[in-house]
Amino acid sequence: MAGNPDDSDGDRSWWRDPRLVIARREVASLKSEKTIVLALLIQLFVAAFSSFLVVGLVSLYDPGSVEGFTVEAGLSGNASGEVRESISREEGIDPSTFGSPDGTADAFERGAIDVVIRANYTADGTIRAVVIVPSESLRTTLIVVKTRETLESMEERLRQEYSMQDRLDVEPLSVPDRTQSSPYFSFTYTVLIPLLMFLPAFISGSIAVDSITEETQRGTLELLRSAPVDLAAILDAKMLSTATLAPVQAALWLLLLELNGTRIAGWLPLVVLVAGISTTVVAVGVGISLLTPERRQAQFLYSTAILAVATLTFLLPEHPANTVAKLAIGSPTLGTYLAVAAYAALGVAAYLIVRIGIERVDPEGL
């Protein structure tokens, strides 16, 4: 029995909806935006090779966590013994004691040692340390971090010793040894994943600003309006195409992270959160574009608004980055889920506000 051609046309009518046609056109046009494509490729590269990149990135995030790097320290001065004792409790730094400052200076110039530490007692019994490191480089950063950790450890130890000398009537309580979490774990969940979640949303808002302002300046927005579609439908399509980019990217990045061995617990809440934030920033971008059709000015206002909002997020009970980290790790609280719901509601509210504003815009004035 042959089907009715009209039924087939009816099934595909939604695909030919003007909003979807314009939305597909917007997505297809992104291929010509080299900056946007480059940003997407960088994010794709980071997410796809996160298990390898995180090792190098952690060295910038926490230089002290770099393994296999040993600092050769040259010690001199009458308090060098205190420094040596503290160094013996640290990893990644080997001491060499010299009889005079000239000896350490000579060894430093020859490259035999990485850092010079001259420690001497002062008249009031405290220790004054002078540290000399090489010229600025990544190696210098590692040397400074390890040397600082050593001196801070010495300061803490001496403070405890001085405070206990003839001052305590009872034995102090023993304190458990300080433990440290893996820098790779903290970097991945508190820096890398939030970055991959938020960056697509902010880029989506910028794309929306560019799309509308360029259409206005080139006069192509007027051509679109000559079709059987009104301004509200055109802007709806643009918001649809740009706002959905971020959650789609977020889902892809999360999948790639999983494939690289990074466990992601709360997939769905994370995508919902990104969708809410993306819709909000896209609505802000569209609103700014309608008020300021000039591209550079609109982008400046958009960037300023996003920076202002990002600053205000520090006043929230739970920062968005913390929300992302908790969801990714799998330790969300009730407040975390309420935050996700709030971001989703904010996205809906932002869309409705902009939609109402569009109805009041005179298309002839654009």
Name a few traits of the molecule.
about 375 residues, alpha/beta, 2 domains, 4-stranded mixed β-sheet, 15 helices, 4 strands, about 65% helix
Describe this entry's structure for a reader:
- The protein is elongated and about 90 Å long.
- A hairpin with a 5-residue loop joins strand 3 and strand 4.
- It folds into two domains: 216 residues, no CATH class; 95 residues, D-Maltodextrin-Binding Protein, domain 2, CATH 3.40.190.
- Helix 10 packs antiparallel against helix 12 and helix 14 packs across helix 15.
- It contains 15 helices and four strands.
- The mean pLDDT is 77.
- It starts with a helix and ends in a 7-residue tail after the last helix.
- A four-stranded mixed beta sheet has the order 2-1-3-4, with helices on both faces.
- It has 366 residues and is α/β, with parallel strands linked by helices.
- The chain is 66% helix and 7% strand.
